[in-house]
């Protein structure tokens, strides 16, 4: 799907590099190094509850903050140093008291609509497999899901801020009449469901409908089933299932609604899964797929607000976990053009693409036979 760009007609090109070019690029790289360090510190602040402890509170010393957060003071003090230098936390140099400005707390805690500190967790998680990724660059192959112990947890936090708040008011209504059908009672499947938080919400909201979740991860399925049982949702079940042969093992016309949330591009056999979804769909059924908003052409992703980050996630997770299964390795940034090609190959003749104003990261595809 990548564009083939013709080379220039001239056989020689001249590139002039100035000191200004070098200085500007050096400044950019130094900035990137500092911001990368900030992301690691931010992840620690999020996971230890330091931002939540600081938010809305008067200035406090490192000892007071450590005591309130039940953490070791020496580590807290050094972390605060990084936060001050990074422009996240303020300090009174006379009293050595620290505080988190309200504008920052809005974006780093649950006080605002989006907690951007959630995404800083990717850096530590994915950096931990760098040696494995370097080996794959040299030898091929991939890194298996088992090397990412917290990935489902982080992805659940991500979707909790993008997909879940929009599920009932924006995503399901993309298919006219679907809410009414769910209220009356239909059969619903979520493939590659992860922890199944969307299923949990739908099963509670629509008790007349029956819900099923498939995922390869035993840990994710166990989490979802435990929460379904705890909530008394007898209309929801989870199953550990490898979907790489879903094109032949899917039960025909078994579901009226099928969903995937960020679930296609890291599959071993994505087209097999999509063909299985088509096979499982009832004649009047609908398939709603959320996946990453991107182009299938690198040069068209230059202006993507999260483009570089998403390519990093692809190299260090989504692409490689597919290759680890002997799969296709589509990658996070497979793009809208390739997605549409795959949906049509799977047998969907009517595919509509939607975007949500609050969500720059995702496309939503509404597919019908």
TrEMBL record:
Domain S-adenosylmethionine-dependent methyltransferase Rv2258c-like winged HTH, chain residue ranges per copy: 37-109
Name of the protein in question: Uncharacterized protein
CDD domains for the chain: AdoMet_MTases (cd02440)
Entries under InterPro entries matching the protein: Methyltranfer_dom (IPR025714), SAM-binding_MTase (IPR053173), SAM-dependent_MTases_sf (IPR029063), WH_DNA-bd_sf (IPR036390), WHD_Rv2258c (IPR048711)
UniProt-listed PANTHER family: METHYLTRANSFERASE TYPE 11, S-ADENOSYLMETHIONINE-DEPENDENT METHYLTRANSFERASE RV2258C
The organism's place on the tree of life at top rank: Bacteria
Lineage: Bacteria, Pseudomonadati, Pseudomonadota, Gammaproteobacteria, Oceanospirillales
Domain Methyltransferase positions: 183-293
Pfam families noted in UniProt: Methyltransf_31, WHD_Rv2258c
Extent of the signal sequence: none
């Amino acid at each position: 799907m990548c564009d083939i760009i013709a080379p220039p007609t001239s056989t020689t090109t001249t590139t002039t590099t100035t000191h200004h070019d070098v200085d500007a690029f050096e400044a950019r790289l130094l900035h990137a190094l500092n911001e990368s360090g900030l992301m690691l510190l931010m992840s620690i602040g999020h996971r230890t509850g330091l931002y939540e402890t600081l938010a809305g509170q008067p200035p406090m010393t490192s000892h007071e903050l450590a005591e309130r957060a039940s953490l070791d003071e020496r580590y807290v003090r050094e972390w605060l140093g990084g936060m001050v230098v990074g422009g996240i936390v303020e300090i009174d140099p006379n009293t050595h008291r620290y505080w988190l400005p309200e504008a920052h707390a809005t974006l780093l805690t649950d006080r605002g609509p989006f907690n951007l500190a959630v995404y800083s967790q990717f850096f530590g998680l994915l950096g931990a497999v760098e040696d494995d990724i370097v080996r794959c660059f040299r030898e091929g192959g991939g890194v298996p899901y088992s090397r990412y112990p917290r990935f489902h947890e982080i992805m659940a936090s991500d979707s909790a801020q993008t997909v879940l708040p929009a599920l009932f008011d924006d995503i399901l209504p993309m298919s006219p009449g679907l809410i009414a059908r769910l209220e009356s009672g239909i059969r619903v499947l979520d493939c590659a469901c992860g922890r199944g938080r969307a299923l949990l919400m739908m099963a509670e909201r629509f008790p007349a409908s029956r819900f099923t979740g498939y995922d390869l991860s035993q840990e994710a399925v166990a989490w979802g089933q435990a929460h379904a049982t705890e909530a008394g949702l007898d209309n929801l079940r989870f199953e550990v299932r490898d979907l790489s042969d879903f094109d032949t093992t899917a039960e025909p016309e078994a579901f009226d609604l099928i969903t995937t949330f960020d679930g296609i591009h890291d599959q071993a056999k994505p087209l097999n899964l999509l063909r299985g979804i088509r096979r499982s769909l009832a004649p009047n059924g609908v398939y709603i797929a959320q996946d990453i908003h991107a182009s299938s052409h690198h040069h068209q992703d230059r202006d993507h607000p999260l483009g570089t980050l998403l390519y990093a996630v692809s190299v260090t997770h989504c692409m490689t976990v597919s290759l680890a299964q002997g799969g296709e390795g589509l990658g996070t940034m497979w793009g809208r053009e390739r997605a549409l090609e795959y949906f049509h190959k799977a047998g969907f003749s009517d595919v509509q693409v939607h975007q949500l104003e609050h969500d720059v990261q995702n496309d939503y595809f509404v597919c019908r036979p």
